[in-house]
Amino acid sequence: MTDLQALAIALDDAAANATEIGQLSLDHPALGVAGAYRIARASIERRIARGERIIGIKMGFTSRAKMAQMGVDDLIWGWLTDAMMLVDGGSVAASRFIHPRIEPELAVRLKAPLVGEVTALEAWAAVEAVAPALEIIDSRYRDFRFSLPDVVADNASSSAFVVGGWQAPGADIGNLGMVMSINGAPAQFGSTAAILGQPQRSLVAAARLAGEAGLALEAGWTVLLGAATPAEWIKPGDRVRLETESMPTVDIAVEGEGA
Ligand code: OOG
Ligand code: MG
């Protein structure tokens, strides 16, 4: 088997320098999903060594639209660090990214740990607050193309995210309309129901997948539940706004040359 640490360094360098690399699976066809999660973990350890802090996880491919767009049909997860978190209403430099895309999501913040097999009711009881969110994904692979082990090793394309105003988890979040606009023009329309039919299921899946990796979702963590629509490309000068039924608006601007 190849040296997983060397692959983790290649991916971490690509992310840190915003430079693309070739798909790992082309040169390492024996790389499986388990090895890929070890690569993701090792690349996050490098971020932690540089002073970043883990603040939660993100779920990927929880909607049919995303699976179809990327040609992958398994749920995946990745790590979130404090350095990925942007300020609602603020901006982010385009130079941080290789070929960024944005997608509408829901985020939850936990008040109690969750681990392994839990029911939706148990999962929801651990939620302190829920919020609309925009996730900026940026695959480190050329042309944004990957296999399942590739994208898992690349920390599920995690790059940046912005969370809107936190709400009490009392309201029914199962079928909230979402409109994501770029520069004032609606680009994607969807519903939170697109997230596994009911976004609470994404939190159940997050607890299960984390448990399989020997981890607990921790109190205080943020979990991104996955995109409700396909992702949209973004470029310098763009301002992206997400309107979610019965929730506050969240928005972010992309700064840089061309703006
Ligand atoms: C992988 C990440 C998928 C989601 O919300 O489904 C994801 C990718 O599409 O590059 O974040
Ligand atoms: Mg996402």
How would you characterize the overall build of this protein?
The protein is of the alpha+beta class and 259 residues long. It has seven helices and 13 strands. The protein has helices at 4-17, 24-27, 33-49, 64-70, 120-125, 148-153, 200-212, and strands at 54-60, 76-81, 85-86, 91-93, 101-110, 127-137, 158-163, 177-182, 185-191, 222-224, 232-233, 239-244, 250-255. The strands form two sheets. Strands 1, 2, 3, 5, 6, 7, 10 and 11 form an eight-stranded mixed β-sheet that branches. Strands 4-13-12-8-9 form a five-stranded mixed β-sheet, with no helix packed on it. Helix 1 packs across helix 3. The radius of gyration is 17 Å and the shape is globular. The N and C termini lie far apart (45 Å). The mean pLDDT is 96. The chain binds 2-oxoadipic acid and magnesium ion (MG). Magnesium ion (MG) is lined by residues 58, 60, 103, 105, 135, 137, 224, 226-227.
Distance between the termini: 45 Å
Q: How many beta-strand segments? A: 13
Rg (C-alpha, Å): 17 Å
What's the order of the H and E elements?
Answer: HHHEHEEEEHEHEEEHEEEE
Largest sheet: 8 strands, mixed
Helix proportion: 25-40%
Number of helices: 7
Structural class: alpha+beta
Structural key phrases:
26% helix; single chain; binds magnesium ion; binds 2-oxoadipic acid; 259 residues; alpha+beta; 5-stranded mixed sheet
Show the helix and strand layout.
Blueprint: H1 4-17, H2 24-27, H3 33-49, E1 54-60, H4 64-70, E2 76-81, E3 85-86, E4 91-93, E5 101-110, H5 120-125, E6 127-137, H6 148-153, E7 158-163, E8 177-182, E9 185-191, H7 200-212, E10 222-224, E11 232-233, E12 239-244, E13 250-255
Parallel strand pairs: 1-10, 3-7, 4-13
Antiparallel strand pairs: 1-2, 5-6, 5-10, 5-11, 6-7, 8-9, 8-12, 12-13
Helix pairs in contact: 1-3
2-oxoadipic acid binds next to strand 1, helix 4 and strand 6.
